Amino acid sequence: MINNATQIYAIGGGGFSHLHKESKNDLVLEEYLLGLVPKNPKIGYIGHANNDDILRIERFYRRFSGVAKTCHLKVEAFPEEVSNFFFDIDILYVGGGSTKRLLNYWFQIDIVKSIESSVENGLILAGVSAGAMCWFDQVVTGSSTEGYELMTGMGIVRGALCPHFNSEPKRKEIFQNYILKNKVPFGIAIEEGVAVHISGNKIVEIINARNGAAYIITSSGNVLEVSILKSGDRLP
User: Fold this and answer.
1) Per-residue confidence in pLDDT tens, the chain, 236 aa
2) Strands 202-208 and 194-199, how do they pair?
3) DSSP string across the chain
4) Is residue 96 a contact partner of residue 131, using CB atoms and an 8 Å limit?
5) R_g of the chain computed on alpha carbons
6) What is the bridge-based pairing of β-strands 124-128 and 69-73?
7) Is the pTM of this model over 0.85?
8) Short-list 7, 15, 1, 31, CA closest to 128
9) Which of 41, 84, 141, 207 is the most buried (most CB within 10 A)?
10) CA–CA separation, 74 and 51 (whole Å)
């Protein structure tokens, strides 16, 4: 359902929900996001992937206090609460965690229609890790301890996305193998502290808080092709 007006803000790792010494410059990730909307926007947070981790919810409200109106959609919200949540938000920010849990729940409660309708009205879709992967056609979900699997994503953007590209070697390996075996047509890979702003099928900007990078990964025959993603690039 991607169109030229659809905006995705995908963060490979870090930001306000991950507070540690490497993230001291990550404020720029949210500053850029705030710059995409008029002053004092309304931002809605969803933490379904981490089962509404209270610390992440608290960090969300603290990070955007004074610069935006804020709200969050709790797990197992009533249908009326879901409708009200999406009514007038400018940015939807989805936290990290289990992408499988997130998508299974979303498909179960049919939150997808609310998201799609809001996107048509200009809603910006943002998120980190699971909250960045979920918007794509396909998702490589799991962990190095639980194993990985390929599942259907939201389908708002073609291809698939791999977060934590420089910090989770097993995820990186599995992701690239899916592309090499043509189970995924192409992929975007994002390192920690890096965000990719996509509008339609065009890369608007790469936002870098930790001297990392983002990549476009394709395959030709039995050869994997990995190129640094740049502003102005278009998705295959």
Assistant:
1) 556 689 999 999 999 987 665 667 899 999 999 999 999 999 999 999 999 999 999 999 999 999 999 999 999 888 889 989 999 999 999 999 999 999 999 998 889 889 989 999 999 999 999 999 999 999 999 887 888 999 999 999 999 999 999 999 999 999 999 999 999 999 999 999 999 999 999 999 999 999 999 999 999 988 999 999 999 999 99
2) antiparallel
3) ---TT-EEEEESS-STT--SGGGTTTHHHHHHHHTTS-SS-EEEEE-GGGT--HHHHHHHHHHHTTTSEEEEE-TT--HHHHHHHHSS-SEEEE--S-HHHHHHHHHHHTTHHHHHHHHHTTPEEEEETHHHHTTEEEEEEEETTTEEEEEE---SEEEEEE-STTT-HHHHHHHHHHHHTTSSS-EEEE-TTEEEEEETTEEEEEEESSS--EEEEEEETTEEEEEE--TT-B--
4) yes
5) 17
6) unpaired
7) yes
8) 15
9) 141
10) 9
Task: Return all residues near 129 (Cβ < 8 A) that are at least 6 apart.
Answer: 11, 12, 13, 49, 95, 96, 97, 99, 163, 164
pLDDT of residue 20: 64
What are 196's strand-pairing partners?
10, 206
The CATH number given to 7-228 is: 3.40.50.880
